[in-house]
Structure formats: C-alpha cells, structure tokens
Specification:
Blueprint lengths: L13 E5 L1 H19 L9 E4 L5 E4 L2 H7 L5 H16 L4 H20 L4 H22 L1 E2 L5 H12 L8 H15 E4 L2 E4 L4 E7 L7 E3 L2 E3 L11 E10 L19 H25 L3 E4 L5 H9 L3 E3 L4 H11 L3 E2 L11 E11 L2 E7 L7 E7 L2 H24 L1 E4 L3 H15 L5 H11 L2 H9 L4 H13 L5 E3 L6 E3 H4 L2 E3 H19 L3 E5 H6 L17
Parallel strand pairs: 7-16, 10-11, 10-13, 11-12
Antiparallel strand pairs: 1-21, 2-3, 4-17, 5-6, 8-16, 9-15, 10-14, 14-15, 17-20, 18-19
Helix pairs in contact: 1-3, 1-4, 2-3, 3-4, 3-17, 4-13, 4-17, 5-12, 5-13, 5-17, 6-7, 6-11, 7-11, 8-9, 12-13, 12-15, 14-15
Length: 545
Amino acid sequence: MDSVQPIFIMPDDSKRSSGKNAQKMNISAAKQVAETVKSTLGPKGMDKMLVDSMGDVTITNDGVTILNEISIEHPSAKMIVEVAKTQESEVGDGTTTAVILAGELLKKSEDLLDQEIHPTVIIKGYRLAAEKAQVILNNIAESISEHNNELLKNIAITGMTGKGAEVAKEKLSDLAVNAVKSVMEKENGSINIDLDNIKIEKKVGASVEDSEIVEGIILDKEKIHPGMPKVVKNAKVALIDSPIEIKSTEMDAKIQITDPGQMQSFLDQEEKMIKDMVNKIIKSGADVMFCQKGVDDIAQHFLAKKEIYVCRRVKASDMKKLSRATGAKIITNLDDLSKNDLGNAGVVEESKVGDEDMTYVKKCKNAKSVTLLLRGGTEHVTDEIKRAMDDAIGDVAAAIKVGKVVGGAGSIEIELSRNLDHFANSLSGRERLAVQAFANAMEVIPRTLAENAGLDPIDVITEMKAMHDKGKKWAGVDISNGRTIDVWKMGIIEPLKIKTQALSSAAEVATMILRIDDVIMSESNKEGGMGGGMPPGGMGGMPPM
C-alpha cells in the first residue's frame, strides 16, 4: 500500500497554533499587557518612563499613553490596546481600569478552560454577567446634575489623584468644572458637551497654580506688524479664510515690459488690488482680523495704519473655536464680508507667556469655546498635567451627560461583585461558573489599589466585603492605612460611564479572544511585505543575485 503524501496548503514559513495552545498563547499575551499598566492604578500608582527611538522621554501613569508609546506586536495584545483607546475616546479616563479588567477576565477564563469547560459556555456566562452588571451599576449609581458644583469638583479631583496635577488639584478641578460648564449646551432637554471646544495650551514656566481659564481662545500667534495695537478693547472680530495677497497665476505666464513706466503701472495695479481687499475689511468695521491664509506685506502696512490687529496662518481648528467663542462667521470671500459677519470679544491682546508672544481673545460674552492655559516647571510636568486635565475634563463631562455617578476607591467593584455573586446563585448549568468567575474578576481593582499602596490585599478585601454585607455600598479602601472608609463622604466619586464603558469593552474583548482557537501567522508577509516573496530566479529574467 502506498504511503499517503502530506499535503501542504500553507507556505513553509507559516506558524500555526491551534486549540488550547492558541487560547493559552492569546490569554498570556493579553495578561502581559494588563500587567504592564497594573502598577500605575490608583493614587499610589507608580509612573512609567517611556523612551522612544528618537530618545524622547515621556513620564506618565496614564494607561492609554503607555500602551500607545510602547510597540506591541502580538495580535491579541493589540486587541487589549484597542480597549484602552475606546475607553479614552468614549470617556477620557479609566483606561487602566478597562485593561486590568480585560486581563483579569481572561485570567479567570484560563482556570475554567483547565476545568474542561468549553469556551462557548464561558462566553455565554460572561455575556450574561456583563448584561446583568450594566443593570446593577445603573441601580447602584446616584444621580447628579450640572448644578452640583461640589460633587463635580470632587469628580475632577478623583480623576487627577495619583497624577502630577495632584499638587494643585483644588485650582485645576475648578478650571475643569468651569471649562466643561462653559461649553455645555442644552437641546430639547438633553445635554450636549463637545470637548473639542475646550482648547488646552501648555507652556513651560511659572507654577501649576498659575494655570488659568480664558473665556475665549488663546492663540499661539503674535500680531504680524509692530505698528498694530497691542490691545484692542470691545473688539469687532473678522474671521477670513482667504489670502489677503495676490494669487499666483495657475500657469506660467510671460509679461514683456519695454519701459519703466509699464513696470510702475504693473506694481501700482497690484498695490491697488491689495488696497481694495484691505478697504473691504476696514469698511466692515472690524478692528481685529484672524486670517487662515497669508497676508501680504503691503496689506500689513495698510492694516497697521488703520490700527487693525491681525494674526495670519491661523489653524482651521482654531478658526472654528474662534467662531464659537466670538460669534463671528468664517468668510471665504472678502466681497461677502459685512458687519453682520463680525464677532465680539471684550479684549484682544498680545501677551508674553514664557518666552513666546501669544494672542488672548478673552471676555467673550456667552463663549461656547474656552481655553485652558496650563503652566509647569518643565515640559514633562506640563505634559503630565495636560493628561491629568484631559482625564478630569472627560470625567466631569461624562458625569453631567449621563447624570449618574458612583463611589471610587474599589467600593463599586466590591458591590458589583457581591450582586453578581447573588445572580450566579440563581443560575443552573455551567454558565453559573463563568458568572461567578466574572464576579470574582471585579475584585481585581480594589486588590490592585491595595497592592500599589503596599497594603495586604486579602485583609483589605475581607474588611470591605464585611462592610458591604452590612449594607454599606460606598465602603472603599483608604490607601493610606488600609482601613475602610465611606468614599461618598470623602468625595472619592467617579462618573458611572467610566465603569459601564470599561466593563462592556473588557467583556467584549475577553469573549472575542476566547473565541479564537487557531492562530495562523505568515512570516513571509512580515518580512517581504508582499504575498509570497520574490521568486528564486529574481524578477522578469533578471539573473539570480
């Protein structure tokens, strides 16, 4: 009998792992990503120093920043990084929490796989638990409105705790709450907050306490002519999205000039055209102009003579913010400019910040776009303060939008774990084990908070559970001494959306990774960048190298 020849359907250099091997490999990769950021969680979390290929240094404990900066190759690990990115875009905070939860759910699933429980059973249990968790969270959460200033401030402080901004948390939390409330809009009973309308500028120099909020916009631009006024009060602002200069011809043209008179009339005509443009701006009544394009030297001279303050080459995003702050319309055709298109600002002035001149457009009535100017002693400090402020602003906005908040310091996770445990007891079948595993996974947050503070996690969680069993749902860990505290009274409060988003993202990625039972990696794609690499004989008759 002839021996059967093996059939190869993939290239020789393809790597394949299947079944339990593939699952273990994927779970291990995901767990390692979670371990990378675990030590950064909480007020006593440590920072990471990240040095890129160019030698630039970033010092942070912000989960998504860490995961974005480090190069991750493994496909399953990349899926965990996506969880952090989703959390960042949806809420702006809680990225580390989301990643740690995803890692813990996969760790618990590994134990269930070892007990010969099929992945689809685990997935079903996890989905049941995730749905129930959302219901439980909504029931536990407390209501909040935009008028609860003290609560909103506590939310901002909680978001900043453990980051570089903590040194000036009182001042910065005030700035965060005021910024969010300035750009908040109510429409048909629903609240809309577009965080793009909060511009954050950071400048090295002075101290964190010198950070400020401007009801309007701070531009990283200076006036373009020394003859222009330094300050304009009760400014009428024009926003122009067309060049105040003569456009070059689209095709090459040759002009023959036979005498100097013709040359002079050619230059005079050019000057007249520019003067006409400037007259349109003057006629509108504007005394401040921001131009998205270039402004000719001659135009600068005429504008300066009329004491009009001008900045040029302003970014499109800044033009939109200026429009929302001042109420001015962005004009693309100078012929259409009229006084109805102008906006208003209480003061437009050039001011030196550090060693750079910047333009302040402030005291705008009903400004729907504001700027936070953050200061700090070094670039690394200002960068980390900006990240902390992003978190704080995201938290305050999420709290106002959803209108619900929960206690922090691990209290909500213990209460959730306890409720999910009761839910698991009402189930029969193997899914019950998966729901219990999901409930136990929730404990990873208070356990990590305790570990990062140098406390005994077993003692901390045991005491917290005892308090929750007595009906104290806001009993959390005091990381300074390991005791349990009423986090609500202590003002350790987080928006509900952080928890609901982190849970749903973590559960989704965990179930997706559990569904994978075969990993096929084609090495040739990695190295050659093309299908199967080059044929042995070179290309199109080329001799072999």
